[in-house]
Design a protein that fits this description.
alpha+beta; 2 domains; 17% strand; globular
Length: 214
């Protein structure tokens, strides 16, 4: 008799996906980009399953598709896969570019967090230059030269908010994530909560004021 105890931890939900769809979801080796619209396919397959909810599946997909290994798979593989591991649509260049950018940003943040910050130990002058004495005037060795602030170029492309009548499933949109706008498709509208599948396959929940026209 099948237990009806609900899965609580997001890792348990991922383990459920690994076990239920082994040809699609991989824990480490063999990860492939997921078919666009994979959430709908999963929802249909688990209909009536009391162990896991659709909300949990969305959260699990969000974690799975934001993993480095998955982003690398988007960059390296030519085709996506469906729940049974069959070849699906081709990975578009736009999706590859977005995954590559997400990888670079994630790695940069990680490297910044891991970068050691220490001063010179007593007697340890290796790698540390003694500040040369100088008057601080231009032309004098050791003088500090103030650099003019570099003005960041402004984007000329204007984006327009998504009209309320277009906030519906299957509408292609741009989603504001932090300071970036990422292309995606609305998968579900639940009152004020709008679920969007990004070009990488990641599932996000957002509000209407964060959606823009493509």
């Amino acid at each position: 008799m099948e237990t009806t105890d609900k899965l609580k931890d997001i890792n348990e939900v991922l383990a459920f996906l690994y076990e239920e769809f082994p040809n699609c979801f991989k824990q480490k080796d063999g990860i492939k980009p997921l078919k666009v619209g994979i959430f709908k396919d999963i929802a249909e397959r688990i209909e009536g399953n009391e162990k896991v909810s659709k909300t949990q599946v969305r959260q699990a997909l969000r974690k799975y598709t934001s993993n480095w290994r998955y982003l690398e798979a988007v960059v390296k593989n030519e085709f996506r896969v469906d729940l049974d591991g069959n070849q699906a649509e081709k990975v578009e260049q736009e999706h590859i570019d977005h995954a590559q950018t997400a990888l670079e940003q994630s790695r940069a943040k990680m490297a910044k967090r891991k970068k050691p910050t220490r001063g010179p130990k007593d007697g340890d002058t290796k790698g540390y230059k003694k500040r040369p004495q100088g008057s601080g005037k231009p032309g004098v060795k050791g003088a500090k030269v103030k650099k003019a602030p570099v003005e960041q170029p402004r984007r000329s492309n204007k984006v327009e908010p998504l009209p309320s009548e277009q906030v519906k499933a299957n509408t292609k949109v741009k989603v504001k994530l932090g300071q970036a706008l990422v292309n995606g498709t609305i998968t579900e509208v639940n009152k004020e909560d709008i679920h969007v599948e990004l070009v990488t396959g990641m599932q996000v929940k957002t509000k209407a004021d964060s959606l823009y026209l493509v």
